[in-house]
Design goal:
By secondary structure, this protein is of the alpha+beta class. The protein is built from 2 helices and 4 strands. Strands 1-2-3-4 form a 4-stranded antiparallel beta sheet, with no helix packed on it.
Length: 114
Amino acid sequence: MHFKLVILFCALTAVLAYSYEPSELADAAIENADLAYYELQPELHRERRQLTAQGGGSPGKGFDINVDGRAPVWKSENGRHQIDATGGYSQHLGGPYGNSRPDFRGGAVYTFRF
């Protein structure tokens, strides 16, 4: 059993040690293909919106719920400046102390791309 683990560890180390560096030509081909795809079908290029939902717990201790969202509000013409709106909700439900008050939050995120 110990010998099998050593062989597995050596194989995993060899795989992780191998560095894959794609050529500049391959990078340029991928980049040009992406640009051509969006130029042919501009309606498919959408702004990124994010929605994250999490939850967990146990019947004896209660459950936690968390929902967060982020959506773009404004973007400059050159694409270097962007403002996103954020919002969220979280609450603890059940357990020995009962339900907590709901927590609502909101904000804005400014991004500058160098």
